[in-house]
Write a structure and sequence with these properties.
mainly alpha; three-stranded antiparallel beta sheet; elongated; 15 helices; 54% helix; 348 residues; three-stranded mixed beta sheet
Length: 348
């Protein structure tokens, strides 16, 4: 009897589920399968490297999780994926050898994942949790980092190894869980690698580099520093705070040390306080601070800091770079522009 990808990979998928979770919280149910289901290295190669296998896997994922056909959401994803592909292609042309296939599924969790064959599934729930396309680009860029690093293939091969341990010990789920925990010691380096690649991809695009830290601040605001105490205990995922702080250091470096955000959310320019953004539009003050930091970092990195700050409507500008659009609760845009000019001139 021919088994589907999910039927054959059930035992392996359970291990990979723990070894390489998706962006934040793995949201897939492990499909039912018998221990006799066979899955081999040849299957991995077929699903990963052949167009027939990739198409089959995409169809199975769509059948399993459903497809959200909302025109506007799909337009946004297509734009983000097109921009990310161009950004990645500028530093890693191999992306064009196996273009990503992707779809929005009907799951409500805050999640996305990349599997074999550069197939990406994006939960519709992401759009209920993130409004900023730069932050969504960070999530998708992280998953593409896994794909470009061949992590799904490595995880599938590791899962086969775990499966052999389970079968030799009787095939119980408890043993599978224990084996997965023993075998996932490489997960944290893989996660850091995907995070670091996401930063490189974002900084080669038009997206705000501050979104890399901002999205993790949003995770912390909503779920706490470890996202889920149960998953934090089981997986080798870095803590959300560590991931946010790693990105913040990268933003500082990208700006050649000119900008930073303090632990209490003050945006600093050349070691001088610039602003504390108000909480607004579903974002905490701290989340907005990282987005302002990212805009400032882009301005310093790209040379816009050589121009004077000015105001366009409610937006503080530095050269051609928007820095911050002021909303209710923020200081006046002209006050902020004047302060930024004073800091830049050394008069503050």
């Amino acid at each position: 009897m021919k088994h589907s990808f999910f039927h054959k990979l059930a035992w392996a998928f359970a291990a990979a589920f723990l070894a390489v979770p998706a962006f934040m919280i793995a949201a897939h149910d492990v499909p039912a399968a018998s221990a006799s289901s066979s899955f081999s290295l040849a299957d991995i190669d077929r699903y990963n490297d052949t167009e027939a296998g990739r198409s089959e896997l995409l169809a199975e994922l769509q059948q399993k999780d459903g497809v959200n056909d909302d025109w506007e959401l799909n337009r946004r994803v297509e734009t983000i994926m097109t921009n990310l592909t161009a950004a990645i292609g500028s530093i890693d042309p191999t992306i064009y050898e196996k273009p990503y296939q992707y779809f929005i599924n009907t799951r409500d969790g805050f999640n996305a994942f990349c599997t074999l064959g550069h197939i990406m599934s994006i939960n519709q729930g992401i759009f209920e949790n993130l409004d900023d396309d730069s932050e969504i680009a960070v999530v998708l860029g992280h998953e593409m980092g896994h794909g470009q690093s061949n992590h799904p293939v490595d995880a599938a091969r590791q899962a086969l190894s775990v499966k052999s341990i389970v079968q030799s010990s009787g095939g119980s789920l408890d043993t599978l869980l224990a084996a997965a925990l023993v075998k996932n010691q490489y997960t944290k380096p893989m996660e850091w690698a995907a995070d670091n690649l996401a930063f490189a991809y974002i900084t080669h695009s038009y997206y705000n580099p501050g979104a890399t830290a901002a999205v993790w601040q949003r995770v912390i605001d909503r779920y706490g520093e470890n996202s889920s105490p149960f998953l934090a205990a089981l997986s080798n995922h870095p803590a959300s705070k560590d991931r946010r702080d790693n990105y913040e250091r990268k933003i500082e470096s990208y700006a050649n040390g000119h900008v930073s955000v303090t632990t209490d959310g003050v945006v600093m320019v050349d070691t001088q306080p610039f602003c504390i953004p108000a909480a607004a539009n579903g974002m905490s003050s701290h989340e907005r601070a990282y987005l302002v930091e990212g805009n400032l970092a882009a301005a310093f990195h790209n040379g816009h800091n050589r121009s004077a700050a000015y105001v366009d409507g409610a937006t503080v500008m530095l050269g051609a770079q928007p820095i911050m659009t002021c909303v209710s609760g923020d200081e006046d845009a002209w006050t902020l522009a004047d302060r930024l000019n004073q800091i830049k001139s050394g008069r503050r």
